[in-house]
Amino acid sequence: MSPARIFADHAAGSAVRPEVADLLADLYRDGIGNPNGGHAEARRSRAVLDEARASLAAALGVESRQVTFTASASEGLALALNSETRAKEPLLTSATEHRGARALAQRHVAAGGAVHLLPVDERGAWATNSPLVRDVASQGGVALLTLASGELGTIQPRADLIHIWREAGGGALIFDGVQAAAAELRFDEIGATHLVLGSAKVEGPAGIAALVSAPDRRLHPLVPGGGQERGRRGGTEAVPLAAAFAHAYRLMSNERHATQRHLAQLCEAFDAALGNPATHGLIATGASDLGARLPGHRSYAAEWALGDDLVAALDHAGLAISTGSACISGSREPSEALAACGLSDAASRGGIRISFGRTHSVDEARLAAATLAATCARIRSSYTAEVSR
Q: Quick check: is 49 in a domain?
């Protein structure tokens, strides 16, 4: 990354930590055998994989047998949903979900199932008092929900929803914990049936994720194989990636509180340098309360520009960000999440997200704000001139 550029899209994934990259290089250099073989190299590989699984399990307060490694968080969600839903059972999800989760919901509809969208307020927080929660739960439905919105930065208030869901006899609660991975997640305290975590959000390598399941749940593999991952997922396990993921998660956990304080300082510096977002034609989106928002996360919407156009202009100016969700970049469609929060169609097409990481400095946060302000001023000036012609 050029020192003249600022990468502020950590919600989409951070660069691999040097310590983690070194571990990966060592494992690949030494040679990792198939962990399912019977020779010494295979046994060494199995030991590395078992250690990675045990490390991640200990951090989450579960047994190793509850952790299944997958190639992505999307696969983990699909595996959990495939194991818990039947064609005619109702599914509860929301408009603020990651697009991968929404795609799974659409597939459930195509199979003849009903999908109900949990309403959200103007911050993108769940309306936990919605009758839908009890209604879907009373039918034995399944919930597929994200603990924290990567697009809006809002951390969801889950306690009341879980209480109502359990009281009404609801089925599995599948939680996407990818964006919330930097929080202290203890599986038994979350109330989930299944929890999905990704590696890239904790400065680990892409291509590896984990599905954590309650001990009484049986997983039905999406792709049958030769008994890998206790028969839950076919294909030879990616041992170096699993080891790197576990190492990155352990490092993140050890530094969690210091990192959260640093990210709070970055956002304070960014906010002070930017001033009132409305001055720049921006609508602040997501939760405003610090405790209800992901650390280091800011999101906005503009009615006078498409999010993709803002991203391109900021990229040219040396600031790398994304539209509200990196997965909708290039679509030029309105964001379902912003629309669900009550924003206009124009504003729902103009969402952007800025997310800082552990390695940013306060000066970089201030420079990011200055770059955003200057770019907005330039584009708005051009827009005004065009409209007045």
A: yes
